[in-house]
Specification:
The protein is of the alpha+beta class. The protein has 6 helices and 8 strands; from the N terminus they run ββαβββαβαββααα.
Amino acid sequence: METRKVQRLGPSTLAMTLPAEWAAANDVEKGEEVSIRMGDKGTLTVLPESMNEGESEAVITVDELGGTAVERAIVAQYVLGRRIIHVQAAESALSSEQINAVYQAETQLMGLGVIEETPADISIRCSVAPADFDLDNLLQRLESTGSTMRGEAIKALAHEDFDLAQRALNRERQSNKIFVLLLRLIFTSYQNPNMARETGL
């Protein structure tokens, strides 16, 4: 563990230097801003501004993955906050099962869309902007949708109403979308203090 000496700048400001190796590795230069997160037990986490910019990308190599595994991998990267997800086959073209899994994941995740496709590579992008959502509102939507869905399911069962049962099933899909979006926002907000403020966390 490296130690740093705290110095006083002015009557009420304390300061310390950043390690030169860390600054160089994260492209932090004089005059740039960094984000500081205060944690439990007196900890401080310093995040470079570069973490708040650009698009986080992930590559999923699917040569040995079936459709279900591909779909789960995309959901995992979505929750982790990736903006661009590349689904690639390194040794051959993507199979029909793998391609169908990509498009199935696209329909299940909010804000996800295919932006480029070749026989061996599909790129999908998440257009969700954290500032567009408030965690409290999403939780209320999730509760409201779940309550409506439960009521419709009970009525459909009692009256043998197929149309009402289908409506409840559609609401379940919407609830799943909201739930996974919540996970994405919570995870990315934990990593990024600025984003946490935008989402109301």
